[in-house]
Amino acid sequence: MITPVIEVTEETVLNCDDLLKQVHAIGKDVLAENAADVDRDARFPAEAMAALAQAKLLSAYVPAEYGGMGLNILQIAKICEALGQYCGSSAMIYAMHCIQVACVVHHAQDSAYFRQYLRRLVEEQRLMASATTEIGTGGDLTSSICAVEMEMDAFTLTKKAPVISYGEYADDILVTCRRSADAQASDQVQVLVRRGEYQAEPLSTWDTMGFRGTCSSGFTLTAIGAADQVLPTPFSEILSQTMHPYSHIVWGALWSGIAADAVNRARAFVRAEARKTPGETPICAIRLAEVDQVLQEMRHNVLCLTREYQDLLNAGCPDLFHGFGFSIRTNNLKVSCSQRIVQIVGGALLICGISGYRNDSKFSLSRHLRDSYGAALMVNNDRITKLNATMLMAHKEGF
Ligand SMILES: Cc1cc2nc3c(=O)[nH]c(=O)nc-3n(C[C@H](O)[C@H](O)[C@H](O)COP(=O)(O)OP(=O)(O)OC[C@H]3O[C@@H](n4cnc5c(N)ncnc54)[C@H](O)[C@@H]3O)c2cc1C
Q1: Which residue puts its alpha carbon closest to atom 1 of ligand 1?
Q2: Per mean pLDDT, which range of 7-21, 37-51, 330-344 is the poorest?
Q3: Residues 371, 244: one domain?
Q4: pTM, 2 dp
Q5: How much distance in Å is there from the Cα of 33 to the middle of ligand 1?
């Protein structure tokens, strides 16, 4: 059973404006200041995450009754987009954390353990990571090799996870695994493992093209814990009702933020060019109009699906997620946003020319371009498109 979240009202949207100003201030003063350094050294953006925790933004999606801000997905998406304008890695970490929080908020409030956990998350601003990808199943979220093994009221699990973003820095990790040693690969649960109760043996490092600050190294996770750390809802439901739509919305939002910053840099470049030849519109201004149009489409797509998702949540009816239609549209959003970000940043690069190509210029788009290529790989677009092709063959709805 999905727990209904706060309904969107004019008031909640207006209240978010002040918060967004605060987010932009953190973005400008902290994220932007450290972005180049975080990217160059592939280091965890500790300053950014500390500033977000200090502003209590790590519990932004936790309902107010537990002490959180009780924001809705539209507002979280706006925060992710704002952060994306200053540092893609920090925004990605924040977005991934929010996805995990949403899994608990939507699917575990029936459990006394998780209600207490949400209070602790608010108080301690705990950072949550995710281990879904597994050696042997790759980006297929719907099957696991690893299994949770229960003995009395305690569990053990071991998972070979090739990519766990900020795994070394998280307080808790939500791990997907089979319900038991004899369960089918698709009979999965999500388990909360807490720092101090798991060991992480390094499997691989994270020296990548983009999203370098996410520090998404691989680990063999070995964890112990109590039975009530297993989320009470089957993972298949958590995936369709929360992890799948929530991920693609917040990712699309933060990618829009990265793209928006690229367009801003391009705009600043065009203005500087225009000042050199007063009265004449520089040729690159045409390209600026083009990328701005694609950015608007990208933002509208994110907003449209976010509204649809919020409506489904408001309805509080899990059955509404069963049709293929919403799932197909969610996948379309992901694939389209991951393509548009490359198109927009590439277009901005054409505008800024060599100034955008340089690493030591205020118009540099190197980090934006490298980050943008990661979008198609985060659950590979081919995997998603193949899934949509299969669903479309069975889907009977008109839209
Ligand atoms: C910046 C970043 C951060 C990440 N953070 C995390 C994290 O915190 N936790 C986590 O668990 N994961 C994380 N991931 C992993 C990510 O979400 C993907 O699941 C993972 O990158 C998939 O790895 P892969 O490309 O090797 O494997 P696959 O998705 O298996 O793809 C490999 C190749 O096989 C093809 N392929 C395989 N199966 C199919 C199929 N059924 N249909 C069509 N094509 C198929 C793909 O198209 C692709 O060409 C992160 C990835 C990135 C880029």
Answers
A1: 211
A2: 7-21
A3: yes
A4: 0.95
A5: 31
Neighbours of 314 (CB within 10 A): 14
For residue range 103-144, list pLDDT tens digits in order. Answer: 999 999 999 999 999 999 999 999 999 999 999 998 889 999
Structure tokens at 371: 């980050």
Residue linked to tokens 């239609």: 325
Core vs surface per residue 365-393: b (16+ CB within 10 A) or e: bbbbbbbbbbbbbbbebeebeebbeeeee
* 273 and 323 share one domain: yes
Quote the pLDDT of residue 5: 53
In which domain, by residue range, is 309 found? 235-394
Task: Give the ligand 1 atom nearest the CA of 96.
Answer: 8
Confirm whether 2 is domain-assigned.
no
Atom number in ligand 1 closest to CA 132: 11
Pocket-forming residues, ligand 1, beta carbon under 6 Å: 96, 129-133, 138-139, 163-165, 211, 214, 216, 374, 377-380, 382-383, 386
Residue-wise pLDDT for 271-317, tens only, equals 999 999 888 888 889 999 999 999 999 999 999 999 999 999 999 88
* Terminal C-alpha separation, the chain: 26
Do 181 and 168 lie in one domain? The reply is yes
Q: Which atom of ligand 1 is nearest to the CA of 210?
A: 1
